[in-house]
């Protein structure tokens, strides 16, 4: 199975409190998604209304896609040890699959944890990153 993992983009997946198609997660689904399943990680310990809203937006447009929210209960999103340990522990449940890690969403600490996990070699991972369409310059 080919799996995509990413953090909930706390700021960029939302505008005025609503999930938006211009955010990195929805945009990834629109332009690059070729996976069997997408796990969206949330630092919350339970029902995160933002994650639920983003999942609903994706499900509305892409009914056939399997997206699951994973609540990791991270108390400090800038504590690299806590982030890495909780992510690695959860990833053990998918260790036998091909895993693409979408590193764009998340705090710098979360992104650094992805690098450590990837370089650790315990999982079959690839790293991928995007940027907002507004950041691209068209050359004529």
Overview in brief:
This protein has 140 residues and is an alpha/beta fold. It has 4 helices and 7 strands; from the N terminus they run βββαβαβαβαβ.
Describe the SSE topology:
Blueprint: E1 2-7, E2 14-15, E3 18-19, H1 24-31, E4 37-42, H2 49-61, E5 67-71, H3 80-91, E6 98-102, H4 108-120, E7 124-128
Parallel strand pairs: 1-4, 1-6, 4-5, 6-7
Antiparallel strand pairs: 2-3
Helix pairs in contact: 3-4
Shape: globular
Q: Structural class, judged by helices and strands?
A: alpha/beta
CATH class: Alpha Beta
CATH homologous group name: Hypothetical protein VC1899 like domain (Restriction endonuclease-like)
Query: What number of structural domains do the residues give?
Result: 1
Largest sheet: 5 strands, parallel
According to CATH, what is the topology?
Rossmann fold
N→C terminal distance: 41 Å
- Determine the strand fraction and express it as a percent band: 15-25%
Describe the structure.
The chain has a single domain (2-135), classed as Hypothetical protein VC1899 like domain (Restriction endonuclease-like) (Rossmann fold). It starts with a strand and ends in a 12-residue tail after the last strand. The chain has helices spanning 24-31, 49-61, 80-91, 108-120; strands at 2-7, 14-15, 18-19, 37-42, 67-71, 98-102, 124-128. Helix 4 (108-120) links the parallel strand 6 (98-102) and strand 7 (124-128). Helix 3 (80-91) packs across helix 4. The chain is built from four helices and seven strands. It is an alpha/beta fold and 140 residues long. The radius of gyration is 15 Å and the shape is globular. The mean pLDDT is 92. The longest helix has 13 residues, at 49-61. The strands form two sheets. Strands 5-4-1-6-7 form a five-stranded parallel beta sheet, with helices on both faces. A two-stranded antiparallel sheet has the order 2-3.
């Amino acid at each position: 199975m080919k799996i995509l993992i990413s953090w909930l983009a706390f700021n960029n997946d939302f505008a005025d409190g609503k999930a938006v198609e211009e955010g990195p997660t929805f945009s990834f689904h629109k332009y690059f998604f070729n996976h069997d399943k997408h796990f969206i990680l949330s630092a919350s310990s339970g029902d995160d209304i933002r994650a639920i809203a983003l999942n609903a937006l994706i499900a509305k447009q892409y009914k056939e896609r399997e997206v699951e929210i994973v609540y990791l209960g991270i108390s400090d999103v800038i504590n690299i040890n806590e982030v890495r340990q909780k992510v690695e522990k959860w990833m053990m449940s998918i260790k036998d699959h091909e895993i693409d890690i979408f590193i764009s969403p998340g705090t710098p600490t979360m992104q650094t944890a992805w690098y450590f996990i990837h370089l650790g070699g315990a999982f079959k991972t690839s790293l991928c990153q995007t940027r907002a369409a507004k950041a691209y310059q068209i050359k004529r």
